[in-house]
Amino acid sequence: MKILVTGGAGFIGSNLVRHLIRDTRHEVVNLDALTYAGNPESLVDVAGDSRYAFEQVDLLDAAALQKVFREHRPGGVMHLAAESHVDRSIDGPGAFIQTNAIGTFNLLQAALGYWQELEGEAKDSFRFLHVSTDEVYGSLGPNDAGFSETTPYDPHSPYSASKAASDHLARAWRDTYGLPTLVTNCSNNYGPYQFPEKLIPVVILKCLRGESIPIYGKGENIRDWLYVGDHAEALRLVLERGAPGETYNIGGNNERRNIDLVRDLCAILDDLRPRESGSYADLITFVKDRPGHDMRYAINAEKIRRELGWEPKEDNTSGLRKTVAWYLDNTEWWERILSGDYRLERLGQGA
């Protein structure tokens, strides 16, 4: 089918687009506003493929969204476009409400109008997959069972609250208007092309630049880490085989304390690119914890395993080592982000 992927120039989106182009016969229309975290350079290896098209459109532009549906006539939507960094949501929550809630509303409305005009098999097979986060569920205690698809929502940050709102909208458009929506909630992603503001790329690049590695609090917060390539495959399976109206939790079966994760990254770098003296772990420093910092996330991914046969292929060792090696081998990509050149060049071309 032809799939409209929103946010396809971002971290998860670019890995998903690459998976769809390389590993399937689907066509992809990548819709991205190219805000600070959207980087076309993450897709240079597939951008020339005949099955790939790009549309620079903001989710807040309802008319432009309707035009994309009319012109490209997708058979499905995979909605990943979102503001996603918790720290940024604390400093500037307005953008998160606009993009994550209002933007999702606009996209749902455009998809609904398009879907209602379809007929026969085209209408029956259409799907709208809304991609969300486990942060909507709140925080777990040390001995609590992992989040399931029926865990009550309890968001604690502007980011997670805005994503919770968008999840509810996607489900409401299914129940009220019949739009065949599905929702996924994933754990923390990591891997190639992740924007260098999230924990794992921050640690890697701080090490390579010989700078202090800041760890919130005592580093005891626990996350379930999911390799982005595994996530992309799961999303494709949900779109192709998931049941409309259902929710699927996607996790990596890989719970780690932040401090243990950081030390493991330092150890991998000690092996792949040793310092002249000492370990990279010597750079670790502890900083004041951020407000509303959830203590633990964990995903129960039994439903997607049972119903769709999906399980993560990468474990904490293989996925982390692949990720570190990618950043070592792709210095130009992240150096252009840190310098701001990737945006300056885009602005110079009128984007």
Question: The biggest beta sheet, please?
Answer: 7 strands, parallel
Which percent range describes the beta-strand content?
A: 15-25%
Distance between the termini: 29 Å
Q: CATH homologous superfamily of the domain at 2-194 and 224-253 and 293-314 - what is it?
A: NAD(P)-binding Rossmann-like Domain
Report the structural category. Answer: alpha/beta
Known CATH architecture of the domain at 2-194 and 224-253 and 293-314: 3-Layer(aba) Sandwich
**What is the rounded Rg?**
20 Å
Ranges with pLDDT <50 over ≥5 residues? Answer: 347-351
Strand order of the largest sheet: 3-2-1-4-5-6-10
The share of residues in helices is: 40-55%
What is the number of beta strands?
Answer: 12
Secondary-structure element order, N to C: EHEEHEHHHEHEEHEEHEEHEHHHH
The CATH class of the domain at 2-194 and 224-253 and 293-314, by name, is: Alpha Beta
At the fold tier of CATH, the topology name of the domain at 2-194 and 224-253 and 293-314 is Rossmann fold
Work out the helix count. Answer: 13
